[in-house]
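Protein modeling request. Please complete all fields; requests missing the sequence field cannot be processed.
Requester role: graduate student
Desired output: 3D structure, token encoding
Chains: 1
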Amino acid sequence: MKLGVLALALVFLAGPAVAQTYVLRGFNVDENAVLVFEQSADMTGGAVLVDMGAQQFAQEMDMANMLKQRRSFGNWGDGLPGEITVEVLVNTQSQKVSMNGNVMADTTRADDLQGRTVTYTSQGDTSWVATMIAPEDTTISVDDANPIDLIGRAYLATPVSVGDSWEVDAANMVAMFGGPGSGADIESATMTVTFDSVATYNGMEVAALSYAMNAVGLMQPGQEGGPPAAMQMEMETTGTIYRTLDTLVDVYMDAEGAMNMGGQMEQGGQSMTLSMEIPLKLTRTVTFE
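Delivered output (289 residues):
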């Protein structure tokens, strides 16, 4: 038998190569792990139109947000923590509003939670109740309902391989981004995730993923950085995620897209229609302390 025929026969007997599979949903950090969560959001170049019937005003708006938290975990059960302690190290918002090139407002402020510690206790589903633990201050409130996506609901609980794509169902989208009481009532949402490759990021083996997302809902007033009145919202973004294959933590995420909002409000007895077009760029990193 010639060598070439023998090699072909061996390949045939070996069969086709089996793709490596990975389960991406879960949370596999050590119980004593401390994660440092940092996020920056840039919403420069927003356009605001105020329609008062007889008059219309066009404004330009730039917004930015910086967030840094230190997260530790406790009350473990069934492989997941039932309690998350969040030290809010940095939480600042800046906003500049201009009209016809003239700056009308330019502010930068720290959120009331900056420098404070909050404990989130699991309610056994997708919501967590927040309690201020340090320093105690009854004048500072935290949301009653907080969606915390600990296990990665954008990912499947079944094995996936490089090249696979999947749709995130509506129930998991709400669990990821909020429901009633969170300030963002998601009415409909779609998200497609693609497993592009296995890569190395900061010395860690990660799944490199890309995604495209669309969400429609109602933004409620009263939230930090939220609208002055209840507004319909639509957001479209695309981006990249790096998820560690051992600990199952999204150590890097970016997003780029736009958010449109519109609604009715009253100010000084005057009814008006407000519409906003806001570009969005966001970067989030998580490091192990």
